[in-house]
Amino acid sequence: MKGKHVLLTGGTGGLGIGVTPAVLASTPKTVTIPYRNPQDVERLKQILSPADFARISFVPTDLTDEANVSKMINDMEGVDVLIHLVGGFSMGKTHEYSYEAWKNDFDLNLNTTFLVCKHSLAKMLPQNYGRIITVGSRGAVQPGGQLAAYCAAKAGVVALTQAIADETKGTNITANSVLPSVIDTPTNRQAMGEENAIQWVKPQSIAQVICFLASDAAQDVSGAAVPVYGSI
Known about the structure:
This protein is an alpha/beta fold.
């Protein structure tokens, strides 16, 4: 990603804590990270050097609002790489799950993906270059009980990404998904305990896969859904 303009959504989150340092290490020209909560920016600040933190352009943005997304991307100098980490996990039996919760899962996981991909592509197509990396889930291809909304939304993320890969054949634009299993984040440790955490996927491992897919070395890889399952 050396010299590239990178849009990194979810860069302040649990997965972002592992991905953001790896992206910065690849010496991009610019890194833009949208955020909702200032405290998330402060959390990221604690793990980065002052020099690296200063290289990031933080933009307050609601990624579920198209006008917000459009403005953020149009204000960027360019978008060569889109790494979309934003998403959320929830559980509930289908017959008990509220329609509002269902819609929220799709807004957070799938609709944000559509909006950032749509407006990033508008920047990438004229320049005939782009790398799009989205985050699906193991549940997208191996759905589990009490995860219907989450798995359906993540399956949509994978399908959307593969459709974009098909649309951009013959260009120097690629679109790929990574499919993590349980990610070893503080939130997941708090929710599920730590006894099985050794089997979970480290954010830094996912970061390495993402950085490869974002690189010129992956120019012949598009439409892939890459499993990153750890030991589970």
